[in-house]
Design goal:
This protein is 32% helix and 22% strand. The protein is α/β, with parallel strands linked by helices. About 3% of the residues have low confidence.
């Protein structure tokens, strides 16, 4: 090493040593007599926070000998948060002050930007172009990795467990996590080559242990343990006021109040863990990000993956048609004052004013031809090209821009109703792009792509009264059945007339409880090749479950409950229903549930009562059926078709 380089290195080390000592001295002044309780590195974090205007955290401490354990525990928490918070606590406070100042002034972060409709594809489910994109997507499936963002509990739903443990529907009681794993395995089975499709789950301190327990108690739902990796996000400190004062826990003077930082942390975690680099080195081309409680997610992923390949999108956001001013984020291309552009999600309450100020005096309005806003609704499923993504992560460390959303007590915008925090969103990743990357969207009908479960029964009923989708456990389950019925109708199946039922104050229309498992078919054309729906008639209130790849339905008349299970058939073995197959039994009923039942039932308002099922699980079949019969009894009311 040259002498000049040695001197420069020595200078930087000396400078850092002096700064550390100054911080430790500042920490000692802030703590007074309590400084003797802490070594220098712990005094340094106290000094950094004192210099950042956080002296209040240490004021009023009793002298040495009183609550010393609490004091030490508090400083240990500060050190841990300083290490886990992007930029450290000092920078976090500085960023918070800037964002809180903008929030207090009511500044729209999009001021100066002009919106326009971005590039994208609008696909009609089952159309020729949709099927072509699905086929192309399945050709790319062997080069995919999947990331599930699952850091939240189900408290907003009225459910105390983790959301991914909830049943997607009551007929088979398949949980969201099971459905996602089975979907990935089904894509893997059909993908070119013999590789595995990596799967990452982002958890939080609230959900990590429960997610691990769910996986282990169910043997990872058939996926090898090594194929699944978990990354855990940390919480960030809360802010008590517009000056970004860190908030103490109301029940403990020696503890900072913390909250989740948002699902945008997934990008930093993929970078910090080395997972994204590992995938890039292994030849992975695409990462599919998806949310925790949308059972329709994998109905749209193959076609969207095909769009990404065909259009060369580096970032492809999945979307649904959106009504003007609907309370869902909109996908927009934004052009800045210097001609710079970015395509990303814009919150609906920001879109209308920026449209009025630029290209549309009427604001966000529906297109008279389509009846929808030209700006589609973002559903937080994103497909990203990994080579470009990894380059960006190397530059940004995966840290995406933050925002703050304080709830003020009055119009003076000075006092918060409760502490807030900085947040970041997964879909804001395109804000990091410097230009040259192709960013677009894929729009699909909501019935086929989007039915999230995120509202409690009470909130869901209020949403419906306001003319909005309920996005509840009730609608989430019924939407699965109805989507499967609709697909079979498109293929020629006949159904009885729909019935209107009311659960948890929400009116729903349902024809039959149809569950098509991912193992059976992953694309529309594959389903059409196995299910001759033109010779199928399913009566109102019937139940049909189809599980396993080796099933061929040539005809069926169903008035009751039938399960087709080929999960134990391999090779050329085929479970075949021939024309003229008739199944009639007492079936299953959707029964309104009492209010005092278990949470997962209460939040949807009904359970499936099994009375009689006919099960086919062997090879060729004509009329010989294995029958399971259940008498009506409360003790067996929640038994599932598993």
């Amino acid at each position: 090493m040259a002498n000049s380089e040695c001197l420069l290195l020595l200078y930087f080390r000396l400078d850092r040593h002096l700064r550390d000592r100054e911080r430790a001295e500042a920490g000692a002044r802030a703590l007074g007599a309590n400084a003797a309780l802490f070594p220098q590195d712990e005094l340094e974090i106290v000094g950094k926070l004192a210099a950042a205007g956080q002296e209040h955290l240490f004021q009023g401490w009793p002298g040495p000998g009183t609550d010393d354990e609490g004091k030490r525990r508090f400083v240990e928490q500060l050190l841990a948060l300083d290490a886990s918070t992007p930029g450290g606590l000092e920078d976090y406070v500085a960023r918070a002050r800037r964002l809180l100042k903008d929030a207090q002034s009511g500044r729209n972060p999009l001021d100066g930007w002009t919106p326009s409709v971005p590039l994208g594809e609008n696909l009609a489910y089952g159309s020729e172009s949709f099927c072509d994109f699905e086929d192309l997507g399945m050709e790319e499936a062997g080069r995919c990795a999947f990331v599930l963002v699952a850091g939240g509990l189900g408290e907003r739903l009225g459910y105390n467990g983790i959301k991914v443990a909830l049943p997607t529907e009551s007929t088979t009681k398949t949980s969201y996590l099971q459905l996602y794993i089975e979907s990935i395995l089904a894509m893997q089975e059909r993908a070119p080559g013999n590789g595995i499709l990596p799967f990452v789950i982002m958890t939080s301190g609230d959900t990590h242990a429960k997610t691990v327990a769910l996986l282990e108690s169910n043997q990872y739902f058939g996926m090898p343990k090594y194929q699944v990796k978990l990354v855990q996000q940390e919480k960030v400190p809360c802010l008590a006021d517009a000056q970004a004062s860190l908030a103490l826990d109301a029940s403990d003077p020696f503890k900072l109040q913390t909250k989740p930082h948002g699902h945008g942390d997934v990008h930093a975690l993929l970078y910090q863990s080395g997972i994204s680099k590992e995938w890039a080195n292994a030849g992975v081309k695409w990462i599919c990000f998806f949310q925790d409680t949308n059972a329709m997610a994998f109905r749209s992923i193959p076609a969207a993956l095909g769009v990404s390949k065909m259009r060369g999108f580096h970032v492809n956001s999945l979307a649904v048609p959106r009504k003007a001013k609907e309370a869902i984020g909109a996908l927009c291309k934004l052009t800045g004052p210097k001609g710079e552009t970015m395509t990303l999600n814009v919150e609906y309450n920001q879109l209308d004013p920026v449209l009025r100020a630029t290209v549309s005096p009427e604001g966000d309005v529906n297109d008279p031809k389509t009846g929808h806003s030209p700006y589609p609704g973002n559903i937080n499923q994103i497909i990203i090209s990994l080579p470009e993504y990894q380059k960006q992560l190397e530059a940004s460390k995966g840290v995406v821009p933050e925002f703050v959303n304080p709830k003020y007590t009055d119009s003076s915008r000075t006092t918060f109703k409760s502490p807030t925090r900085l947040e970041c969103m997964m879909q804001d990743y395109p804000r990091l792009l410097s230009g040259g990357q192709s960013v677009g969207f894929t729009v699909m009908e909501a019935w086929a792509a989007y039915s999230p479960v995120k509202n409690s029964p009470e909130d869901a009923a209020a949403k419906v009264q306001g003319g909005n989708p309920s996005h509840s456990a009730t609608s989430g389950e019924i939407d699965i059945y109805n989507a499967n019925c609709r697909v079979l109708k498109m293929l020629g199946a006949e159904f009885g007339p729909p019935q209107t039922r009311t659960f948890n104050g929400i009116d729903v229309e349902i024809t039959a409880q149809v569950v098509l498992c991912p193992s059976y078919a992953m694309t529309y054309r594959e389903l059409a090749s196995k299910f001759n729906a033109a010779k199928v008639r399913i009566e109102t209130g019937s139940s049909l479950v189809v599980k396993g790849e080796n099933i061929l339905v040539k005809g069926l008349e169903l008035n009751g409950a039938l399960k087709l299970d080929a999960s134990n058939l391999y090779g050329a073995q085929m479970l075949t229903l021939h024309p003229g197959m008739k199944v009639k039994n007492m079936g299953c009923q959707l029964v309104e549930s009492p209010l005092d039942t278990e949470e997962e039932v209460r939040i949807r308002g009904f359970y499936v009562q099994i009375q009689e099922i006919k099960v086919l699980d062997k090879g060729e079949h004509r009329s010989k059926l294995k029958t399971q019969t259940f008498r009506k009894s409360m003790s067996k009311k929640h038994r599932a078709l598993t």
